Amino acid sequence: MLLENPAGPHTVGATTFALPVRPTRVVGTAAVRAETGQTAPALQLEEVSFTVYYPVSPNVAKSHKKWLHWFPRSLRESVRGYSHFTGMSSFILWPAVLFFGSHLKIPAFLNAPPLRKNERQVDATTPLLGEQPAPQRQPPWPLVIFSHGLGGGRTTYSQLCTHLASSGRVVIALEHRDGTGPICRPRSQKTGKRYSQLYISPDQVIWDKKQDVHTFQDSRLTLRAEQLELRRREVHLAYTAFRKLVQTGENGDLQTVDESPLDWASWGGNWVECDKNVSLVGHSFGGATVFSILSNPPPEEAALRIPVSHGVALDPWLEPLPAPGPEPFADQETPLQHPKLMIINAEGFTLWKDHFKRIEDVVPTWPGSSLFTIVGSRHVSFSDFPVMLPMPVRDSTARPIMDVIKTLTLSFLDDDLPGAVGKLRTRKLEIESHEPRFWTKKVQRKLYGRAGDVVVHRAGFTAEVDTQAEADPDDPGRRANGSGL
Fold it and tell me: In whole angstroms, what is the distance from residue 221 CA to residue 214 CA?
């Protein structure tokens, strides 16, 4: 069963790469109990893995399969990972995975050769009438680097990633090997064999007595800070290796994750713009990763600083980041213009008063930044989970909300955010309160408006907010006691 095809003008391909890191590097001081009973470093950087989504010629349909498994193989290990992450029994998860998840596929041509902008994207079955003028040389495809949140992976956000690729971008979707995903299969540099790395919970971590870690909250935030350090290293290593590949056609240590043959030379030729206007996008802890990269110097071993022009933080979780901040990193030796920033919140993180207050304090420090909330959205709305469910189970608002996320993200990267916002239903922030349910004593709070409405908190441009809908006195859903934060 294929997920929805991307609506952009380009056909999409997908190739997954793995980059061994030699020697293996230990990041941080967190330790875990290994299966042998001995303690071992929790965060080891021995392999970087990422899936690249990119434009391809429609003619690849004749020679390549149009699907990429959404659930990583083997299914047995995937079920084990999700069971560990969710706390649900594998006996409960197996039926859902076997009858549904195992058939779930991403609509992308596996390991297809990339399309250059200067190549004609014409279906070979369509006859050409008359002599065709030579196309003008076009600039390379822009590069996007995507960072997933807790419980995510390189396929979890495929709907957004394939949409960006179909619209004419190349997307590097990281699979962070930092214990934040349900399951990943890095290759051991000692044995040469792959092993399963499961989600690392803060209560599993063993800290050195010298560490000032006494509570679960201390362990959680200290672990996340060390994971952010590992993620920064992964992103820079992935960027450097991919840049070398597309500029020279030489893969070096880079290999396909399934070790399938690949025409490496076809990946050379500077068909991706890696030396300017790179975009960083991330969700939740991936949003924190975006901030962490943009507010810190590159790792010591990084050969290059990533020339980021746009940063998109989708429902970012800021708690693991040092406060006050984060602020844009200023490098006096190699000054770069501060990237543009856009934050899109789901309802819950906007209604989380302390966290939203911090976001409001952070945004002004990033010149030209924009901050939005999508009414009716949830934290998970930015991933594939809500839209991949079959129709009898799927929330009817899942697809419209995903479409708003795609529209805002792509228009921001295209520097056309004012035009996109002008076509969406926008409104000012208004919160309505409901009496507590019988099973809870908490007052229920939610944003006023229809699912998919966009609350404009701050726009890096002059925006006219249409408030006509919220002024309708006949709307039965409106509460008189709505108020701001």
Answer: 12
CA atoms within 13 A on the CB side of 452: 15
Q: What is the distance between the alpha carbons of residues 228 and 296, in angstroms, rounded to a whole number?
A: 11
Question: Can you tell me whether residue 96 is helix, strand or coil?
Answer: helix
Listed residue (379, 347, 317) closest to 457, CA to CA: 347
For 344-406, the three-class secondary structure string (H helix, E strand, C coil) is EECHHHHHCHHHHHHHHHHHHHCCCCEEEEECCCCHHHHCCHHHHCCCCCCCCCHHHHHHHHH
Tokens of 203: 């209560």
Q: CA–CA distance from 314 to each of 146, 198, 261, 378, 418 (Å)? A: 11, 24, 35, 11, 19
267 half-sphere exposure, CB direction, 13 A CA radius: 27
Per-residue pLDDT in tens (0 to 9) along the chain, 485 residues? 779 999 999 999 999 999 999 999 999 999 999 877 789 999 999 999 999 999 999 998 887 888 899 998 889 999 999 999 999 999 999 998 888 888 899 999 999 999 988 665 544 444 555 555 555 667 899 999 999 999 999 999 999 999 999 999 999 999 999 999 999 999 998 898 999 999 999 999 999 877 777 788 889 999 999 999 999 999 999 999 999 999 999 999 999 998 788 989 999 999 999 999 999 999 999 999 999 999 999 998 887 889 999 999 999 999 999 999 899 997 765 555 789 999 999 999 999 999 999 999 999 999 889 999 999 999 999 999 999 987 777 889 999 999 999 999 999 999 999 999 999 999 999 999 877 766 667 778 999 999 999 999 999 876 555 554 444 433 433 333 333 33
Task: Tell me phi and psi for residue 458, to 5 degrees.
Answer: -155, 135
User: What Rg do the C-alpha atoms of the chain give, in angstroms?
Assistant: 23
pTM, to two decimals? 0.91
